[in-house]
Amino acid sequence: MVGRVGSWEVAKIDDYTYHLWEERRAGRMSRGEFLRRATVAGTSLALAGSLLAACGSEQEQAQQQSAGPIKRGGTGRLGLVVPASDPDPVTLFSSGAVFVTQVAAEGLCFPRPDFSLEPKLATKWEAANGAKEWTFTLREGVKFHDGSTMTADDVVATFDRLTDPDNESAALSAFGGILSYEQTEKVDDYAVRFNLDRPYVDFPYLLSLFNYNALILPKDYEMGAFSKGGVGTGPYILKEYRPNQGATYVKNPNYWDKGKPYMDGVEANFYDDNSPLVLALQAGEVDAVPQIPFQGSQAVFSDSNVAILENPSSEYRGLHMRVDKEPFTDKRVRQAFALCLDRPALVQGLLDGRADLGNDHPFAPVYPNSPSGSTVPQRKRDVARAKKLLADAGHAGGVDVELTTERFLEIPQYAVTLKEQCKEAGINVSLNIMDQTSYYGSGDNQPWLEVPLGIVDWASRGSASQTIAPAYLCDGIWNAAHWCNEEYDGLVREFDGELDEGRRRELGARAATLQHEEVPGIISYWARELRAVRTGFQGLAKGPNIVLDMSPVWLSG
């Protein structure tokens, strides 16, 4: 539409952006929610800011820290956990492999700490046909590390590679039922259209690095070649990858973002476990740890040479109960489990308060459409109620179960605490804690998808839709609870395609209420993302901590 917003003349505002502006002006959206939704829809940050200014004075102000004038040169040293697999963007799944690739390669857009989206290899995007078609305009003049020019052919090939079921791509979990193989088409040399299986308002998140496999690679890329080096468009070029040891990068002299990067290179050092990683950080052997757990890292939180970057997130530890296996076929047993947990005590004991309470549905507090506590009352510990539910389900004498999980982050401590909190209600939990590689397995041997009771770490996702699709829909590729509820699926799919924000909130609340009642899994808390950097390591965003942009990083001393 063409018109005027307040005293500011608008050259062109699409109907959806105008709807978001109306929601903000009416007080139904916060400043942050407006910016997030507008940038996901493809509105530039400049236009979104101008629209906000037209709403009047703003009480919410972005806080920025000035670290002085930028200095150039030096080598930034990253501390990473050893990648659990080869760092190939198509198949990788572990944080170590994710960070190795993201130093050298980029996606179409990039998530900011507030979950708004920043253009990277795409300059803009827009939806059509009720959010069933999305067209992305590509940045011109971008060079791959081998000197070839990035065009639409490379982008089409990238997403065909990721959606090809024969490639065992880790991104199939994100794109399943949304973007199918060979449904990405070239419009011209610098525009690509994605033809979706169904309307999906949050689709740009799936092309951002919230989907960490969505790195743009050359059209002739051969799987497994990334670790050989020289692949990507990013600020640093991978020169050497040393399995189980580290990786070396040099500055990209032809980087598209002129003036960046600021350092001469990056050195990534691998560590088998968090303990030696923490010691290396304290000793000054590494400058930054992009993702650090609280448990086992407490020493650096009081180290004057280390700064902790903290960011609210949608990261959680999902405790799933297989609804097709006894005793979890009866939802009263699942409800009893959920009622055993003292969530505030978990947050304090496991993370020293660095988390927000979960309520057994995937609409995290950071999402604009998260239902309020009055809509879905916060579940609290109630042992007496848990005992009654167990008795009603035929387990008056208690129930014995085995909890299988991974040795990662604070999950082992969570498992031990859960065991203790359930004991009083008559739920006797035995523990089977496996190393991460064995727990996730591969091919036909993936224990986490088979065990009746398990805990899984889920990294941040940009929207509730991105969290729900692989884990809770009937056809979800990572539906560890084996839960299938057609009413829930219908609500979520309607939510996914709904453009009106008020209606989206209503649909989200209905879906959350249903899942809260059925309890296929327990979400006790939403962990805040943590990063650790030594003094002098400047410019690293505080989150999301599963993504890494090294282009603005510099060393002050």
How would you portray this structure in words?
- There is one protein chain.
- The chain is of the alpha+beta class and 557 residues long.
- Among the domains are: 3-54, no CATH class; 107-223, Dipeptide-binding Protein, domain 1 (Alpha-Beta Complex); 314-529, Roll (Dipeptide-binding Protein, domain 3).
- Helices cover 28% and strands 22% of the residues.
- Strands 13, 14, 15, 18 and 19 form a 5-stranded antiparallel β-sheet that branches. The protein has a 4-stranded mixed β-sheet with strand order 3-12-11-10.
- Strand 1 and strand 2 (8-10) form a beta hairpin.
- Helix 2 (31-40) runs antiparallel to helix 3 (45-54), helix 9 runs antiparallel to helix 11 (383-392) and helix 15 (486-497) runs antiparallel to helix 16 (501-518).
- Mean pLDDT is 91; it is low at 1-11 and 56-66.
Task: List key phrases describing it.
557 residues; alpha+beta; 4-stranded mixed beta sheet
Concise overview:
Helix content is 28%, strand content 22%. The protein has helices spanning 15-25, 31-40, 45-54, 95-102, 152-163, 172-175, 203-207, 274-282, 331-340, 343-351, 383-392, 411-423, 436-440, 464-472, 486-497, 501-518; strands spanning 3-5, 8-10, 75-81, 109-111, 117-119, 122-128, 133-138, 184-188, 191-195, 236-242, 246-251, 265-271, 288-289, 306-321, 355-357, 399-406, 427-434, 453-458, 521-534, 537-538, 554-555.
